[in-house]
Hints:
Blueprint: H1 9-19, H2 25-30, E1 36-43, E2 47-48, H3 52-61, E3 65-66, E4 76-77, E5 82-89, H4 90-124, E6 129-132, H5 141-150, E7 154-155, E8 164-166, H6 168-171, H7 179-189, E9 195-199, H8 202-211, E10 215-219, H9 223-233, E11 239-243, H10 251-255, E12 261-264, E13 275-281
Parallel strand pairs: 6-7, 6-12, 8-9, 9-10, 10-11, 11-12
Antiparallel strand pairs: 1-5, 1-13, 2-4, 3-5
Helix pairs in contact: 1-3, 3-4, 4-5, 7-8, 8-9
Amino acid sequence: MPNPYTLTDIELDALLTDDAPWGDATSWGLGISTLPGRMHFHARHAQVVCGSEEAARMGVLRGLEIKGEVVPSGTVVEPGTPLLSFTGRAADLHRVWKPAQTLMEYAGGIASATAELLAAARRGNPLVRVACTRKHHPGSKSLSVKAILCGGAAPHRLSISDTLLVFAEHRAFLGDLQPAQLIARLKQAWPERQVVVEVASADEAARWMHAGADVIQLEKCAPEIIRQVVTRAGTGRCQIAVAGGVTPDNAQAYAATGAQILVSSAPYQGAPRDVAVTMEAIPPCPPPLTPALS
């Protein structure tokens, strides 16, 4: 999937400042800070690229010049594919190097894991959709959501402020309120939003479908149970989502039940996809006799 958005300069500057709050001490100590050089990023492994726009912007924020094309986020690449190149001062190249590389590796890992999960699911049902939860690493929401979008999934919930998902933990506070009354209360308060109800059995699913839920989310149910619920839902408007432990190993079986949505946190655990970085001096570059401030 193509790049959906780019992180803000404030977010990127924070990453750069965290890694080099007072410049590159090594470059200053060696006296090479102002010498010109080039830096190249290549995919070491096959992957779905993610974060290349952010890496490019990091360079610009630190005075580097982008050379050539930047491979867009969402692009599937083979090992060795050039992703991004810069020219600039040695100290600035070193200040951008690790923050940009690490961002691309982690984002690429999530995007690639998302694509793998989606591919597994669509072997069971070509029309199934994958939605990823908000159980990303704390503080990483902007990048994590971008990565799952680039991998072909959708956010399950961007926040609890914009979605209606009724858990058993909500229902514990509602006493004898009946399912139809609960649905009506939510529809009255939020008339334009779908009501999703999480359940743990086929009988619960039937009650909430009858009450008017828009989506039934089955938590940690076996494929046989999900298939029963899908059959009961028929061609009605209620959609069936599967949640709880959905991984590439079982996504095909879950998708084959006919459920329309698979909900997963697994992509956030995807291993980073290595991005190789090489750097070279632009000749001629005799080293200065005294350290230059970075």
